Amino acid sequence: MKTIGFIGTGVMGSPIVRHLAQKNYRLNVFNRTTSKAEKLRDVAKVYTDVSLLIKESDIIFTMLGFPNDVKQIYDIILDVAKPNTIVIDMTTSSPKLALELYRKGKEKNIKILDAPVTGGEVGAINGTLTMMVGGDIEVFEQMKDLFSVFAKNINYVGGSSLGQKAKLANQVAIAGAIWGVAESLSFAKNSDIHIDTMLQILNSGSAYSWQSINNGNKMITKDFKPGFYIKHFVKDLKLALEESNTDLPLVRNVIMMYESLDEVTYDKEGIQALIRYYK
Fold it and tell me: Residue 230 in contact with residue 271, Cβ under 8 Å?
């Protein structure tokens, strides 16, 4: 059985590692904040040296925060990974960077897929994530059964970088959905409609969405624990603006709303905290 390395064991990465462990894969894990990786010591070998993890893994997953993090880790991967290593980046990152890394990997016989996921912490815990995969179809077919351990909907989008582009399109739709829920609930509250009743209406009619079902009640109860950090979502939306050949007014407005929130909210809370914009 091949050894799997996992770099980035945060909100999403940790439950994915546990799903892999349930299938008895040999697992190596690394996180920049070592304490997060230590929580997985019961199911994986914990590394404090990422280079050593890379050398001792046949398949490597990365799930990081920002494109700069991806570049730093992949510079090391491209330098020390064994030939024929398969690397899957599940970070939502820059399509241009994904294509650049894919080409550099080709030169060293390192096979790289860009495979961001959607479904949030809930999807990671339940093993029901949706994947959008870009790269060589042959590598995708090799990895598909492995992906099915933690993902329910696995989509091959096309060549390298198209997984990232599909994820950015997905994030545009999320921006509209989360904005709609926050604004609807705020409108209802200011119109003397019981806010719980309003959410029940949203969730049982044509306005329902993943955001209304999973984040609507969190908005009402002011549960802003991050299943998906604001700072990461805004990063995604800014990448969409960079990649887009058309104007994205909805995206620009949602970015503005998030960036108007206080620093603690922006850095530490989940995207449902958009409701704070409506004071």
Answer: yes
Taking CB atoms within 8 Å and a gap of at least 24, the contacts of 253-257 are 253/179, 254/175, 254/176, 254/178, 254/179, 257/179
Taking the model in full, what pTM does it have? 0.93
Query: For 173-222, how does the pLDDT look when each residue is reduced to its tens digit (9 = 90+)?
Result: 999 999 999 999 999 999 999 999 999 999 999 999 999 999 999 999 99
Are 218 and 80 part of one and the same domain?
A: no
- What stretch of H or E contains 86? strand 86-89
Question: Cα separation of 133 and 113, whole Å?
Answer: 7
> Taking phi first (over 0 means left), then psi (-120 to 50 degrees means alpha), and beta for anything else, what does residue 46 get?
beta
Same domain for 183 and 107: no
Using an 8 Å Cβ cutoff, are 272 and 178 in contact?
yes
Among candidate residues 36, 111, 165, 167, the one labeled active-site is 167
Residue 209 maps to which CATH number?
1.10.1040.10
167 is catalytic: yes
Determine the structural domain holding residue 140 and report its residue range: 3-159
In a shared domain, residues 122 and 191 = no
What's the total number of domains in the chain? Answer: 2
